[in-house]
Design goal:
By secondary structure, this protein is mainly alpha-helical. The chain folds into 2 domains: about 80 residues, no CATH class; about 55 residues. Helix content is about 60%, strand content about 0%. The protein is built from 8 helices and no strands. α1 crosses α2 and α3 packs across α4. The model has no long low-confidence stretch (mean pLDDT about 90).
Length: about 160
């Protein structure tokens, strides 16, 4: 038998409703942020997680997660609203944004990546090579020779150049 849960209803101030409404109608914000704004607005109207899930196209567990995160952040949002209302929009955006994910740290710094891209955009003849275009192995050799990186694979160089 499934446990019955009560969906808590967030009580939003006029300023919070205005910000969330703007987020929910935005075409320039990430779609996740738009959906999450809709979740909070519908929750504030007393809708159940299952009904909200059907309306926004997410699983009800996801709806519950975002409702609970917003409810947990609500006291802090109210403090920010009274102390510094200009920061409220940014804080709501932060609360409704994805958390940082775990994973291996970057091996190359943004500065190193920019230097690699700059090198790839330069003429190989400027570096003493008798070719008109860089090959990946040649670029790897020059990156190591210039000390941009101690070691790097051709695949990493290729990935950086595709980002450009």
């Amino acid at each position: 038998m499934r446990k019955k849960t009560i969906d808590m209803i967030p009580v939003l101030s006029a300023a919070m409703k205005k910000i969330l409404s703007a987020f929910s109608k935005s075409r320039s914000l990430p779609s996740g942020l738009v959906k999450r704004s809709n979740i909070i607005l519908l929750a504030a109207q007393g809708e159940l997680n299952r009904d909200i899930a059907l309306q926004v196209g997410l699983h009800y567990n996801n709806v519950a997660t975002w409702r609970n995160r917003f409810l947990a952040a609500l006291p802090a949002l109210r403090q920010i609203e009274t102390a510094d209302p200009e920061k409220l929009e940014g804080e709501i955006c932060r609360v409704l944004s994805d958390r940082n994910r775990s994973g291996a740290p970057s091996v190359f710094t943004p500065d190193q990546i920019m230097k690699i891209i700059d090198l790839a955009c330069s003429n190989p003849g400027d570096w003493g090579y008798e070719v008109s275009q860089w090959s990946l192995p040649l670029l790897v050799t020059e990156i190591i020779k210039q000390g941009i990186a101690d070691q790097i694979s051709a695949k990493s160089v290729s990935r950086f150049l595709k980002m450009r």
